[in-house]
Amino acid sequence: MSARIITLMTDFGLSDYFVPAMKGRILSVLPEAMIVDATHEIVKYSVLDASLTLEGYWSCFPVGTVHLCVVDPGVGTDRAILVAEYMGHFFVAPDNGLLTCILEQAVRYPDNGPLRAWILKDENRYVKDPSPSFHGRDIFAPLAAEVASTGDPGGFLHLWDPVYLKRVSIPDAVSIENLITGLVIHVDSFGNLITNIRRSHFLQAHFPAPDHSAEDGDSADGITVSELFPYRIIANEVIFFPCRTFAMAQVKAEPLAMIGSSGRLELCMLEGCAAELEGFGIGTTVRIEVSGNR
After folding, report:
1. Per-residue b or e along 194-224, where b marks 16 or more CB atoms closer than 10 Å to that residue's CB
2. How far is CA 138 from CA 4, 125, 129, 143, 183, in A?
3. Whole-angstrom Cα distance, residue 64 to residue 153?
4. Whole-angstrom Cα distance, residue 25 to residue 241?
5. Relative to the CA of 174, which of 1, 151, 200, 227 has its CA 20 to 30 Å away?
6. 3-state secondary structure the chain
7. 160 and 82 in contact (C-beta within 8 Å)?
8. Phi/psi at 104 (nearest 5 deg)?
């Protein structure tokens, strides 16, 4: 049954007919499909936002799930129509960089096995003369249904070397001893600022990560929080207090920094919105340095 789960992510919103049209086309090909709405609120045309969102949810689904992702500013052009398989999951998307985070994970964790890819060469396979502005309905939806039905894209698609797949630029944080420099790459619906700094960057800089064990709001084994985290996290001259949970905040709207569920450092505020701080947003530089340094 897991091979018939299809997740659906788009930037279409829900006020038009686009999403139900795609679902109808899926069900026309595969009536028993279980369609799960991931989100339809991706930032319009933002392939990077789509890639980071996909990174956060795909592995929560059973092996065999098909993840249909349509954020396609190049719809109607000669960009390729792609199916990829990684760790038993299938991804159906335009070849425009949307799968960047999946490709990077395959490189970062080679023991999980290779990523395989195929492309669809016959755009008329499902609908003669598909709409040049709505490939989501006329190509991607039935393609996802066929992948879910057969579990074997190689039976009807052309094998493609993943090295040729498009990528979007996600700058890596720079980590040296006692210093990490990164930037904000995503803003979530709570206004938390997601950075490109991962737990591994703290290890490279010889810093304990903010999710290092300690009693919430107190010292642990006689070690104060400042001793446990002997560094400052600074963005736009605002200092963010490292913590494991929101419960460690002393007051509401205190600037906090924690390793979020995505595995990345997040700048946030207890019952507040870090994105509303003046001058903060995607591209904001974040610096982590030994306490007392500038």
Report:
1. bbbbbeebbeebebebbbeebeeeeeeeeee
2. 19, 9, 9, 9, 38
3. 12
4. 49
5. 227
6. CHHHEEEEEECCCCCCCHHHHHHHHHHHHCCCCEEEEEECCCCCCCHHHHHHHHHHHHHHCCCCCEEEEECCCCCCCCCCEEEEEECCEEEEEECCCCCHHHHHHHHHCHHHCCCEEEEECCCCCCCCCCCCCCHHHHHHHHHHHHHHHHCCHHHCCEEECHHHCCCCCCCCCEEECCEEEEEEEEECCCCCEEEEEEHHHHHHCCCCCCCCCCCCCCCECCECHHHHCCEEEEECCEEEEECCCHHHCCCCCCEEEEECCCCEEEEEECCCCHHHCCCCCCCCEEEEEECCCC
7. yes
8. -65, -35
Question: 290, exposed or middle or buried, with CB in 10 Å at 0-12, 13-18, 19+?
Answer: middle
Range of the domain at 159: 2-164
Which candidate, 230, 234, 203, places its Cα nearest to that of 214? 230
Q: Express each pLDDT in 139-150 by its tens digit.
A: 999 999 999 999
Residue 94 makes CB contacts below 8 A (sequence gap 6+) with: 70, 71, 72, 74, 75, 79, 80, 81, 82, 135, 140
Q: What are the backbone angles phi and psi of residue 36, rounded to the nearest 5°?
A: -115, 120
Residues 71 and 180 in one domain: no
Is residue 213 very low, low, confident or very high in pLDDT (cuts 50, 70, 90)?
A: low
Per-residue pLDDT reduced to its tens digit, 66-87? 999 999 999 999 999 999 999 9
Say which CATH number the domain at 21 has.
3.40.50.10790
Q: Same domain for 148 and 181?
A: no
Structure tokens at 90: 């299938």
